[in-house]
């Protein structure tokens, strides 16, 4: 990932086709030692391609990837009704957990990081 990020930084800086030397310079500026094999792989894969087009294609691919928080709905008969009935119980449990967290926050013995 660091090699791709360095490549993108170089292109953002106006270098449309960064070399290994350019990317090593960026990585060295933050104290990262470059692995020549990985660096050459990134350069060979990205060289001659339009970065904006690659990013647009990547965003299109990521749109189909589920991001956390998705609710799974079971399609088995009879399982939908209990799931609906158990939803309020889950909300009540969350409220109780929040109350417990507030009580635990008093364990700092009167000292606070920002006092």
From TrEMBL:
Residues 80-115 are annotated as: Disordered. GO terms for molecular function: structural constituent of ribosome. The keyword Ribonucleoprotein applies. InterPro entries: P1/P2_N_sf, Ribosomal_P1/P2, Ribosomal_P2. The keyword Cell membrane does not apply. CDD domains: Ribosomal_P2. GO terms for cellular component: cytosolic large ribosomal subunit. Residues 91-101 have a biased composition (Basic and acidic residues). Pfam families: Ribosomal_60s (PF00428). GO terms for biological process: cytoplasmic translational elongation. Residues 80-90 have a biased composition (Low complexity). Keywords: Ribonucleoprotein, Ribosomal protein. Plays an important role in the elongation step of protein synthesis. Belongs to the eukaryotic ribosomal protein P1/P2 family. This is Large ribosomal subunit protein P2.
């Amino acid at each position: 990932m660091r090699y791709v990020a360095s490549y993108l930084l170089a292109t953002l800086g106006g270098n449309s086709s960064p070399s290994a030397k350019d990317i090593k310079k960026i990585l060295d500026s933050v104290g990262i030692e470059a692995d020549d094999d990985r660096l050459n792989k990134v350069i060979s894969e990205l060289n001659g391609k339009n970065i904006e087009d690659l990013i647009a294609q990547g965003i299109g691919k990521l749109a189909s990837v589920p991001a956390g928080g998705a609710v799974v709905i079971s399609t088995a008969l009879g399982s939908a009704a209990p799931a609906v009935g158990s939803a309020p119980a889950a909300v009540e449990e969350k409220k109780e957990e929040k109350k417990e967290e507030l009580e635990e926050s008093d364990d700092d013995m009167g000292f606070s990081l920002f006092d």
